[in-house]
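Input record, target 12 of the design panel.
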């Protein structure tokens, strides 16, 4: 099992923690990680874009001029794609972009990213994160003490003092143990996680 240092909010090491190899020492499957990211981004798409084809735009029921003898190219309708106000060729229509992964694939991708963060020493465990009041400066100081920039902060409880203190810091995002996902983990340079959150992750995903 991998051992990681546990820090306090001042950035001092206060102990160590053994990580479960089933989650934090898993085989890194880059293909599954890629699929998970593509799936997550695709599932965010609304798929509501729509443009009209020549059969859907109004007008154009009459041939604009006779077929021969005018010197113009022949035209059948003023709503053909080459005309201003005409229909669009291969117009986009509403569609469902959803890409589905099964539960095992999602878990394997998540474990792969968590493992890679541990291997790259970008997984920082804090004994606790607790503020008496909402204070952005206090959160900034904690992240500076931990040398964590562009961090994803994973909490076990929805502590509003911590969440709101981190909200206005550029590049910093908070998440609960049941909302972590592959894309957010990859998007941030560092993962800062409370000791309680690590224990919950091990319980849920082991």
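The sequence produced for target 12 reads:
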């Amino acid at each position: 099992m991998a051992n990681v240092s546990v820090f306090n909010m001042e950035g001092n090491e206060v102990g160590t923690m053994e990580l479960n190899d089933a989650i934090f020492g898993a085989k890194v499957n880059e293909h599954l990680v890629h699929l998970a990211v593509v799936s997550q981004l695709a599932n965010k798409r609304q798929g509501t874009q729509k443009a009209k084809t020549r059969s859907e735009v109004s007008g154009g029921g009459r041939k604009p001029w006779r077929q021969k003898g005018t010197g113009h190219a022949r035209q059948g309708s003023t709503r053909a794609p080459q005309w201003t106000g005409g229909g669009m060729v291969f117009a986009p229509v509403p569609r469902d972009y959803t890409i589905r992964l099964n539960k095992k694939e999602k878990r394997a991708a998540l474990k792969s990213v968590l493992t890679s963060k541990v291997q790259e020493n970008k997984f920082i465990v804090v004994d606790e994160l607790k503020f008496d009041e909402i204070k952005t400066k206090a959160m900034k100081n904690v992240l500076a003490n931990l040398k964590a920039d562009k961090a994803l902060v994973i909490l076990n409880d929805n502590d509003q003092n911590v969440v709101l203190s981190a909200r206005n810091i550029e590049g910093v995002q908070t998440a609960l143990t049941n909302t972590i996902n592959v894309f957010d983990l990859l998007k941030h340079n560092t993962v800062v996680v409370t000791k309680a959150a690590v224990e919950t992750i091990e319980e849920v995903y082991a």
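The helical segments are 21-24, 30-43, 103-119, 136-145, 160-166, 182-187, 195-205.
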